[in-house]
Design a protein that fits this description.
about 170 residues; alpha/beta; Rossmann fold; seven-stranded mixed beta sheet; 5 helices
Length: about 170
């Protein structure tokens, strides 16, 4: 069983290349703090949840409610996804990748990133969303009955984002 869990964690890491993060001495858990300066707020975008995890109690709605509550409590303006896309506003992308590795066990990877509209210096007319701030990933295993607890990791990473946001926007 340990071998299966270890293999699932390796597969999750390989499939999700964003798990590999760069660490800076002054920012051990994040990168891109300066890119948050002057932002008006964010919209929250939740990654698709697997049908198995949804059946076991993990929902996009619960994640969104928890993340948005932390942001609002921190004084960060939260906009709708529709408004963010229409006006090219930043998107706080929350991903909980939970994969069932046995009848009672999940392997998971949780991370949070800020996506902002960027353009190429040589071709400013070409714009797209890109990651400008990223948390470290949290990887682990948990029992099927506790799959909702992955929201706790999303909350932790959202608080990290809020702290970085407020550090460069001390209004």
């Amino acid at each position: 069983m340990r071998y299966v869990v270890a293999m699932m964690l390796i597969v999750l890491t390989i499939l999700d290349m964003t798990v590999a993060r760069v660490s800076f001495a002054d920012e051990p858990l994040s990168m891109g703090r300066e890119s948050l300066q002057g932002l008006p707020g964010v919209s929250v975008l939740i990654e698709h949840i697997s049908p198995e995890a949804r059946a076991d109690g993990l929902s996009k709605e619960a994640i969104r409610t928890s993340v948005e509550l932390i942001l609002r409590a921190s004084g960060i303006l939260v906009t709708t996804e529709k408004k963010a896309v229409q006006h090219a506003l930043p998107l706080l992308y929350v991903r909980i990748n939970a994969a069932k590795v046995g009848p009672k066990l999940y392997a998971y990877c949780t991370d949070v990133q800020l996506e902002q509209m960027v353009s190429l210096r040589k071709h400013p007319e070409r714009a797209t969303y890109a990651t400008t701030w990223s948390s470290a990933s949290i990887v682990g295993t948990l029992l099927r009955s506790n799959v909702r607890n992955t929201i706790i990791e999303a909350e932790l990473l959202t608080k990290q984002f809020a702290n970085d946001f407020l550090a460069v926007n001390p209004w």
